[in-house]
Batch of 2 targets.
Target 1
Amino acid sequence: MVRVALVGLGFMGRMHLSIYGKISNVQITALCDSREESLDLSKSGGGNIEVGEMTTDVSKARLFTDYKKMLAEGGFDYVDLCVQTSLHKDFSVMALKAGYDVFCEKPMALTTEEADEMIKVSKETGKLLTIGQCLRFWPMYVKIKELLDSKTYGKVISAEFSRYSPTPTWSVNNWIMDSRLSGNAALDLHIHDVDIIQFYFGKPQGVNSSGEVSAGGGFGHISTIYDYPDKTVTSVGNWLCSDSFPLIMRALIVLENGVINLDTSQSDALTVYENGKGKFTPVLDSEDGYYFELKSFAQNVETRKEPTVVTSESARDSLAVALAEIESAKMKKKVSL
Ligand SMILES: NC(=O)c1ccc[n+]([C@@H]2O[C@H](COP(=O)([O-])OP(=O)(O)OC[C@H]3O[C@@H](n4cnc5c(N)ncnc54)[C@H](O)[C@@H]3O)[C@@H](O)[C@H]2O)c1
């Protein structure tokens, strides 16, 4: 049994907690949030994705409002960090130095220097570190990766990714709308597409971005053209949509012999259009990426194997690309990588 300490019980912490109930070899043995009211699990933590029913067994969990006290008392194998992004580096480093493996939510940190320190301490302590870049585990996106890698439809000609969301309103003290704490949509929301683009196509040679500054500073909208020598790749991240608009994720990939269309606003979210054969909707696992990423990390902890799908280095590289996009949008010119 892998014992987990879950830290930060807002939107994502509650999401993770609901998922742990489905993973058989995991036991929650500590829950920590600096706000006592967040430890009351009967209340919702908000968010732009529905949190599943809370059936997870927390009967063995000790409750903490002080993170350092929790680390000192121990009684768990890894720490799952769902706190605000500005705490990711310090909380990860403290846990690693205290002798625990760490699953830390995305984005890895606010700067590459912070991310490098997290990686360095993970190596020095020999403790595992992964980041919640969940799209690499999300069945729709995993299927696309399989199709691209198999070369079934030939070479990719163009790929367009987007993520549109209503403006987040749930975060504690509205930290998410303070760019200094979250990086605004250009980092917080858009990092998902930045990371999946690296996963599919590797690191681009440069980025050319344009953004719209929104409340709290930083970019609430960002559009980017990625520089690849053999294909055109673009993306958009935007959380300036009205509150009645749903979170929508899209990916439209045109290949020599087919088109892959992911659009979560459609009932068949993933459709493949084959040259000369018509279209089909791949059968996908009903569990989501949060389930697979957490299950996978629990297995890493149990077997002492380094994560291979999301490595701390891959998450650091995605952060570097997203930060280059922000720089490009600010300077209004291309940034080379
Ligand atoms: N993977 C995804 O799809 C996804 C989606 C949403 C958020 N996130 C990430 O998850 C993280 C948390 O976001 P959220 O939306 O859940 O925020 P949130 O504000 O809803 O929750 C954060 C929680 O951390 C607690 N907290 C703050 N300081 C603390 C401290 N010192 N010690 C212990 N607890 C503390 C807060 O009280 C709050 O309950 C962010 O990094 C965000 O980017 C990831």
Target 2
Amino acid sequence: MATDTSFDLVVVGAGIIGLAAAYAARQRGLRVAVVERHARCIGASVRNFGFVTVTGQRRGEHWQRARRTREVWEQVVAQAGIEVLHRGAYFLARRPQARDVMDAFLRTDMGEGCRILGAAEAARDLPMLQPGHGVLYSPHECRMESREALPRLARWLEAAHGVAFFWNRPVLGISLPQIHTSQGVLHAAHAVVCPGHDLHTLYPEMLTQARIRLCTLQMLRVMPAQPMTLPGAVLSDLSLARYDGFTGLAEAGALQALIQTEQAEHLRHGVHLIAVQSADGSLVVGDSHVYGDSEVPFQRDGIDDLILGELHRVLRVRDLRVVERWAGTYASSADVVYKTAPAPGVAVGLVTGGTGASTSFAFGEELVALSLGA
Ligand SMILES: Cc1cc2nc3c(=O)[nH]c(=O)nc-3n(C[C@H](O)[C@H](O)[C@H](O)COP(=O)(O)OP(=O)(O)OC[C@H]3O[C@@H](n4cnc5c(N)ncnc54)[C@H](O)[C@@H]3O)c2cc1C
């Protein structure tokens, strides 16, 4: 338990955005504390795939954020003792129109380092892949087990960087230099607020005006009866029709129209496929996207069936046992991030495009700069 109560900068929220901001502030030599409502991070940052993606991010600034974040993750995982479970991503084109999107993507600057795998290469890397119209391979991605990585990151920030952590302490209000928590007042010249999808505790009027909604996602962990190895994340046409980095291409229109006809139920529930593997051989598979003004409290089997159906269209894996189901929620808006400075010295930041693991470290740097007025 930290005992100091005065810092240069206090971060609210120990999700990945808060931890990334704490790291960025320490890189500037500031004395930093992180204050978290819960006993540990239980938000979106530990419920996600742990999939750090570059390919598919919105072109321009956000893609650059992902590239920068990927670079910082590489430094951090080595130092914090976080295991990278696999690298790269494989997109299977199940339709010729998806292959057109891939070819068009490769002609853009975002295609750098990516390529279409030859049939032999694809069969070598992923022998269980269903037949299709080509596989786009991106080398830029990596995957960590978030539920292990986040606590390790926090412990490392504390031990190696001297960040003070206050757990089980909701922050109730900020009036710098005072930060009012459920257990007393902390003092800091600067604050960075990273509340995830809590839009009601700090600066609620501002977050309401920003037209932020909540997106609830369903996730599954499945164990294949026969051992198998995924060398990287596996995705399908549905992601090529969903991710901004692809949908911004003219060729995406034909694919989206076809999916609208052939997989309307998937689109209705925002289902697309990401499959990644954990150290015990199980696969984390998702996901769906249901938008509203609150979290969706109930999970639906029908949505899980849509996700698993797509998995079977992409991978020849029989006899899967579902061993875990969970849901996660993130704040969502038309833009991919929301950041603002509601008072001098304070920055508030949310990643609203569902890509916080992939863009956290760059966004954390932006938020610290905003709070410093830099
Ligand atoms: C199921 C799912 C899958 C996803 N998959 C991916 C993926 O593979 N790749 C990717 O890049 N992104 C993914 N995302 C998105 C990504 O997980 C989020 O963008 C990211 O985790 C958001 O981080 P955060 O720190 O803002 O939020 P959170 O992780 O929710 O953390 C916010 C923290 O702030 C705390 N807090 C809030 N208010 C207060 C307060 N007043 N006082 C104290 N503490 C407070 C909360 O308790 C919480 O711990 C996924 C999201 C979900 C839900």
